[in-house]
User: Which sequence fits this backbone?
């Protein structure tokens, strides 16, 4: 039963990531991947040639979309 529950959790996470990936723009995907590996807003901004405010805005949109696709 425990293994079944763990498999269910993995499946839910995979589905969530797929839904999120489909709803994010190319830039949002880039920002999210850099953020998840530990880059700061300034580092992400430099790598993507964007302003830190644009990165902040992208992460706010990502958080909103994540809430929308959560189940």
Assistant:
């Amino acid at each position: 039963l425990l293994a079944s529950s763990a498999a269910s959790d993995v499946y839910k996470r995979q589905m969530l990531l797929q839904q999120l990936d489909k709803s994010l723009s190319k830039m949002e995907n880039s920002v999210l991947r850099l953020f998840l590996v530990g880059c700061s807003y300034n580092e992400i901004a430099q790598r993507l040639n964007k302003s830190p405010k644009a990165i902040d805005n992208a992460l706010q949109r990502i958080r909103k979309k994540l809430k929308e696709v959560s189940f």
In short: The helical segments are 2-23, 26-36, 41-48, 52-69. The mean pLDDT is 88.
